[in-house]
Specification:
heterodimer, A: 311 residues, alpha+beta, 10-stranded mixed sheet, 5-stranded mixed beta barrel, 6 helices, 35% strand, B: 281 residues, alpha/beta, 12 helices
């Protein structure tokens, strides 16, 4: 939605309003109903340094509790402050490449600055307003698992990231934005998305974006469980995960978990992890390495997790 | 610019004793029972996760040129911010960037490299088991292939592509090009004379350990013990579910397994370094 008077674009990500000077095509247009304070996105000159003393300096990023400055060589510079302001200074002429770091680093920094923790999860609806989430680091098969379950009739909730919150002894998830990112071999195993719907994400890469704006549910959903995905051994197996192991795995799957210490969010993280693991079921779902088990793995999740419980 | 030289590369062509050496060093440095899946030495040059965590980026979005630059930056940063030596496994041949002509492996943060090599005739057998391929395929695609590589950046694995070249070119690249010291260890010498060979490497790295500590680490990581640990607890670095990572561990098994044509093919392409390191006769 383009607001012609203010010359801004109005979007939402994680149900947070975003008022932007530039087009952010992966996000959904704003419904205008939220009373959450917005994030303002501008294109301009990024400051040379933080206002306050940095708490951590890394090759491409410096940050403290309330500010992050990120400089990606030949791509762009980014400044995120107070959880409500993002400035983008493009270097590359490839806007899609410039925006990659907005969707990933800038949004994650803004969330953490608001004391909200994004997790590396995908998920599908297993009942109205109830979702099963899959957590794993990149390349283990979160997106593919969601896509294979969509093939079996389960609507995709989110891909890659979601916010998790605990309210009245229940865990809720808020999806990020409607974009699946899948590899060509996973794409070939499904027939929901047509070849023409594939969006090339990066030049010469074998990975594609699949938008699901039309089916995207932009409200919180109750989390009925969380399956941690792993590639190991020779068998597909699904086992209940003890709470201590679940906390460890969940902490490893905080999106940009490497920022937690430098942004002084350790206490917030511990409280949050304990709340999540105490109030939802957790499983370890393992599939073999080096063998095509896309469909049988999704079937095992369907029979042993989704159909085994009443939601 | 790097100011510290903390990195010790543990370099090798695949299936040449690298995991054995890392297991030994892990046992020596921690003095704890070895857990193969949580080894003290677990950094890998080609690992995507390190680059992602250090540079706050997603590796799937990187161009080949960015990958080269980002790997160098990652290991320079790790060296600069560490107060200890960092032992990093690497299977890449020592090659140079097509974009800027600089070595792909950063030299500034390097303390030294330990290069493990093994008779390519035996490597062929071990690699065939590891990859689940026949000997001819391994000879053609890896041992004798000037374009040979490990990993594939365009699929969903967790490592960047690693140039291997032929077996001989791999050895020669590490012998010829690095400006830092490279200490060569033959797998066969580790088998026949483990104490002396491991002790020399430990001293070269600059570690201070007693003979008893070195003997204890050797004992804790014998081939039979590593194989037993893998059988009991599994090993994540195993590529195929049906195979075993610690397979036979023998030397000279090629004499029974390879036919004359296969032996001649390997010797023809890999003669220079086979002669140089005593694998010719």
């Amino acid at each position: 939605m383009r607001n012609n008077i203010l010359l801004t674009y109005l979007y939402e990500a994680y149900r947070i309003p975003i008022i932007s000077d530039i087009e952010l095509p992966s996000l959904i247009q704003s419904t205008g109903l939220s009373d959450t304070p917005p994030i303002r996105v501008v294109q301009g000159v990024v400051p040379a340094s933080l206002k306050e003393e940095p708490l951590e300096r890394k090759p491409f990023s410096i940050f403290n509790e309330n500010e992050l400055l990120c400089s990606i060589p030949d791509v762009g510079r980014y400044y995120v402050c107070g959880g409500n302001y993002i400035c983008i200074e493009p270097i590359s002429n490839n806007q899609a490449e410039v925006l990659l770091y907005f969707y990933s680093n800038c949004l994650a920094a803004a969330l953490l600055q608001r004391n909200l923790i994004p997790f590396h999860v995908s998920g599908v609806f297993v009942a109205p307003q109830k979702v099963l989430l899959f957590s794993a680091s990149s390349k283990v098969g979160k997106s593919t698992t969601a896509l294979m379950l969509q093939q079996k009739g389960y609507q995709v909730f989110t891909d890659d990231t979601a916010l998790l919150t605990v309210k009245e002894n229940k865990v809720f998830a808020q999806a990020s934005y409607p974009m699946l990112r899948v590899w060509q071999d996973a794409f070939q195993q499904q027939n929901i998305y047509a070849e023409s719907q594939k969006e090339t994400l990066f030049n010469n890469r074998n990975k594609y974006g699949l938008s699901f704006h039309k089916d995207f549910v932009n409200t919180e959903a109750e989390v009925v469980g969380l399956a941690f995905l792993k590639q190991e051994g020779s068998e597909i197996s699904i086992q209940t995960l003890p709470p201590l192991e679940a906390i460890k795995q969940l902490s490893n799957n905080i999106y940009r978990h490497q920022w937690i210490s430098g942004m002084r969010k350790q206490k917030l993280m511990l409280t949050h992890l304990a709340g999540i693991t105490n109030h939802t079921k957790m499983w370890q779902a393992t599939r073999p390495k080096g063998i095509d088990t896309f469909d049988s793995f999704a079937t095992a999740i369907e029979t042993q997790i989704i159909q085994a419980y009443e939601y | 610019m790097s100011t510290k030289k903390n990195i010790v590369w543990l370099a090798s062509y695949p299936k040449s004793g690298n995991t054995w050496f890392r297991s030994f060093l892990s046992a020596l440095l921690t003095k704890q029972e070895l857990n193969l899946n949580k080894m003290y030495i677990r950094d890998v040059f080609s690992g995507k996760k390190l680059v992602e965590d250090i540079l706050d980026t997603d590796s799937d979005s990187l161009t080949p040129q960015q990958i080269e630059l980002y790997q160098r930056l990652t290991f320079q940063y790790l060296s600069d911010t560490s107060s200890n030596y960092l032992y990093v496994k690497i299977h890449d041949a020592f090659t140079f960037s097509a974009f800027d002509g600089l070595p792909l492996i950063p030299e500034e943060p390097t303390r030294l490299a330990i290069y493990l090599l093994r008779n390519p005739l035996d490597v062929t057998l071990s690699l065939a088991n590891h990859l689940g391929r026949d000997y001819d395929s391994v000879i053609q695609n890896y041992i004798n292939n000037p374009s040979g590589f490990f990993g594939n950046s365009f699929t969903t694995n967790n490592q960047f592509s690693q140039p291997l070249l032929t077996w001989s070119q791999h050895v020669e690249s590490w012998k010829t090009y690095p400006t830092f010291k490279v200490h060569f260890i033959r797998y066969e010498d580790l088998k026949t004379n483990p104490f002396e060979v491991f002790k020399e490497a430990v001293q070269l790295i600059g570690l201070n350990h007693t003979d008893d500590e070195i003997r204890a680490a050797i004992e804790a990581t014998s081939f039979e013990k590593l194989k037993k640990i893998e059988q009991e607890k599994g090993f994540r670095e195993k590529l195929l579910p049906a195979s075993t990572f610690f397979f036979k561990g023998e030397t000279g098994r090629w004499k029974q397994e390879l036919n004359t044509k296969q032996i001649q093919q390997i010797k023809k392409i890999n003669e220079p370094m086979m002669r140089e390191f005593g694998y010719w006769d």
